[in-house]
């Protein structure tokens, strides 16, 4: 197996914006983002849920860079909570993010995501 090139994140990277908001900008808001049992959630619906969760965290007084523990089943609510926390609580500029990335012990990335960078 050939090793992959290192991932170089852009100066400003937010996974919620990359995986959710970007789909809206691409005009894919009506496409299904999540299928869970009989439930289907479009990117537009997920985008709205993500923002509701993020806004709710702020209203509860959770500040940027504070930790949030998610104990949820593998459902659309988990995705909305995960991306909502990332979108609203992670720092916006690269200088702060660099320190965050340096504290990581391990970064697990799927091949499909790696190839996007």
Summarize the structure in short.
The chain has 117 residues and is mostly helical. It is 47% helix and 8% strand.
Account of the 3D structure:
The protein is mainly alpha-helical. It has one domain (15-114): Rossmann fold, CATH 3.40.50. Helix content is 47%, strand content 8%. It has a two-stranded antiparallel sheet. The model has no long low-confidence stretch (mean pLDDT 82).
N-to-C span: 19 Å
What can be said about the biggest beta sheet? 2 strands, antiparallel
Order of helices and strands: HEEHHHH
Q: Could you name the ranges where pLDDT drops below 50 across 5 or more consecutive residues?
A: none
Please compute the radius of gyration using only Cα atoms: 15 Å
Report helical residue fraction: 40-55%
Please tally the β strands and state the result: 2
- Inertia-based shape: globular
Structural class: mainly alpha
- Under the CATH scheme, which class? Alpha Beta
Approximately what portion of the residues adopt beta-strand conformation? 5-15%
- Strand order, largest beta sheet: 1-2
CATH architectural name: 3-Layer(aba) Sandwich
Average pLDDT, rounded to a whole number, is: 82
Count of runs of 4 or more consecutive helical residues:
5
How many structural domains does the protein architecture include?
A: 1
Per the CATH scheme, the topology name is Rossmann fold
């Amino acid at each position: 197996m050939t090793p992959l090139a290192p991932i170089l994140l852009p100066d400003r990277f937010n996974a919620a914006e990359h995986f959710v908001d970007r789909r809206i900008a691409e005009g894919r808001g009506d496409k299904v983002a999540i299928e869970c049992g009989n439930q289907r959630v479009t990117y537009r619906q997920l985008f709205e849920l993500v923002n509701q969760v993020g806004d709710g965290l702020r209203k509860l007084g959770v500040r940027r860079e504070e930790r949030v523990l998610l104990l949820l089943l593998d459902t659309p609510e988990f995705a909305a909570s995960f991306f909502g926390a990332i979108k609203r609580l992670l720092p916006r500029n690269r200088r702060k993010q660099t320190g965050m990335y340096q504290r990581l012990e391990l970064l697990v990335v799927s091949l499909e995501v790696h190839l996007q960078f």
